[in-house]
Structures are given as structure tokens and as C-alpha cells.
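Side project, low priority. Logging it here so it doesn't get lost.
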Amino acid sequence: MAADEPPERQLRVMPWWLVLFGLLLAAALGWLVLDLLLTEADRATQPDTRATLRIDAIRTGLTVVAGTGGGLALLLAARRQWIAERAQRHQEGVAARDQAHRDRVQGHTESVAEAAQRHQDRQSVAAEHDAAERRLTELYTRAVELLGNDSAAVRLGGLHALERLGQDNPAQRSTIAAVLCAYLRMAAPDDEPRETEVRRTAQRVLTRHLRADDDSTYWPKVVLDLTGARLVDFDAAGCTLVDADFTGSVFTGVTSFADVTARGRLALGSAVFDDVTFDDLSADAEVVLDGARLGGLASFEGVDFGGGLSCRRSSLAGPTSFRRATFDRSTSFDATRFEDSTVFEGTVFHSGLSMEHTEFGGPASFRAARFADMALFRWTMFGAEALFERAEFTDAANFGRARFHTLASFDDAQFSRQPQVDQARAAVGSNHVWPAGTVVERLDDEWLLLVDR
């Protein structure tokens, strides 16, 4: 059987001798019947009857021959019909296989065409991407070259070119922000007005795109690395700062971090400020001011220190206010010096507070402050009034070896347990108001000694 032949019995051609044999068989059968009948007719006695029987015998013999031939003809006709039906089925099968083959060829052709089109599209997209990247690189390189020009006007043009490049290409914003930060970290000539204006513009470009109130200009998740930068009148009010690092930066003029949302650590260690405001800042991680020097007014009113504050060994020379601030994590002001008035009125410390070896050169007011955890004021020096009126201590409070150079007042302060005051000293001659149960002894003409029971 051929490979493409359908799974059925293969048709065989009828040989010619088989047809001839059938005809001879029909003739022989007719002859035999005729002979038998004629023999019987010849036995008749009457001549008339014999003639009639012979005629009937002949007629019957011919009928047998005709019937046999008709049967053979009918069989041949049936075979012919069967052959025709098989031929039709074969043609239909061949046509179906041809159509399936054509469909496969068409499908293959279409798939090849689609693959070719996809490849062409990918090449086109890749070519467009490469062209865009080349153009972007050229624009970026040109803008950076402008930023390094000796002319301040040209540098300003480079800043605006970088800003536009970042605005049109979100994927490049972090890189552009890093370039601007690097520019601000570079040393600048002192008292050079044109360079100062360029740096102010660089600062404004950065902060303008860190305010989330305008989706059209907001650059999310941009990280500022301004370690050691020199910033003039830096205004980040309303910005969203992500892991911003200002360690060792010098802020001259008026600096504002008001209404800032700090996501991640806000590092301001060893930074130097003139006047600065952090009012209503919200931080979800630690704010670091270790070793910072604040030379003028410092305002932290309404700040939410969600991750706590570390302000160790810092110096705050001007009036300082933490009024209504909230500290959710442990906070430390150890070895920090407040040279002017300091206000913690209405401040809430949800976690531990440490002010060991802290110095207050001016009045220190903790009126209506609430300490929900341990509060440590050991070895703290209060150079002027120390006011804890209406303060609430719901955990341990320790003023051991503290020094009160003028008035100390705990009027209406609430303590969940007796505060520790061992070896604390207070100046003689002031109308101090101590917590109930505090034991005060006269040490000499200048000092009173506080001891624990």
C-alpha cells in the first residue's frame, strides 16, 4: 500500500477471463437446463404436447441464460458503483489532504511572516531606543559640559538643561539629581555672587521636584547626597526627602525644613546652620543631629520624630523650641549644649529620653511636657531657670548629680514614682519648688544638696 493510501483494502482490477468465465458459465447453465427440459419433452407421447413442451423448454432455457446474465450484469453494475464510490472517497480524501497541506503551508508562511515582522519591529524599536539613548547621552553630556563652563550664565543654562532632561526622562532623574548634588558638594569660591546664584538655582531645581503636591513636577524616590555641601538659604519646605544625607553640610542664611516628609534616615550630623526651622516635619526614621552646630534660631515646633532623634554633642547657640514636638522612639541629647532659651513645652516623649551631661545656658522650659518612659537628666546643668511645671512623668525620672544654677520649679508636676535626685545641687537663694518628698540639705553658702530618701 502506498504511503498516502487511506487505511482500507486496496482495489484490485478484475481480470478479463473472469468475465468470460461468467458468460460461459451462464451459457453452460442455460444449455444444461435446456438439454434437461428437451429430454423430458421428447418423452411426451403426443406430438402436439411434445412440441409445446419443447417450446417451453427453449423458453425456460433462454430465461435461465438471461437471468444468469442479468445477475452477472447486476453484479458488475454493483461493483462499478462501489468502485465509483471508492474513487469519490479517494478523491475527497486526496482533496482534504491537499487542503490540509495547503493550510499547513499557509500557516507556516503566515508564522514566518509574523516572525519576520516581529523581528523587524524589534529591530525598529531597538534602533529607535539606540537613537533615543544616543540623543539622551548627547544632551546629558552637553548639559554637564555647560555645567563645567567658566561662565556663570552658561552654568545656569546647563542646570536648566539638566532639569528639562530629567523632566522628560523619568529614568534619568536619579542620575541628574546625583549630578546636581555633586555640583553642590564641590568647593565654591568664597563670596562669589555669581557662583552663589548658580548654587541657589541648583538648590531650587532639586527642591522644586521634591514636593509631592504637584504630580507634574514631582520626582519620587530621588535620594539627596549633600554630604559636606555648602548651601545658601536652602529651602526644602514641603519636600519629601528619601534617605537624605546632609552630614557635614554648611547651611548659611535661613534654612527651612518646615513641613518636610522624611522617609528613611535624615542625616544632619556635624552640619552647621545659621537660622533653621524644622516646624511640622514628619519623620518615619531616625533624625540625626549628632555634632551639629546651630548658630541662630532653631525651631522644631510640632515635629513628629517617628524614628526618634539623636542630637549628641551638638551646640545650639540661639533660641531653640521643641514646643508640641512628638518623639516616638528613644531620643538623646547627651553632651549637647543649649546656649540660649530652650522650650520643650507640651512636648511628648513616648519612649526614653536621655539628657545626660547636657548644658542649658539659658532658661529651659519643660512645662506640660509628658514623659511616657524613662527620663534621664543625670549630670545635666541648668544655667538658668529649669521649669518642669505641670510636667507628667509616667516612668522613672533621674536627676542625679544635676545642677540648678537658678530657679528650679516642679510645681504641679506629676510623678508615677519618686524621682531620683541623688547628689543633685541647687543654688541657694532661689524659690525652688521640688517634687513632693524631695530631701534638701544645705551644702555650703552657695549650694543646696538633694539626696534620695
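Brief comment: Residues 47-147 form the longest helix (101 residues).
Revisit when time allows.
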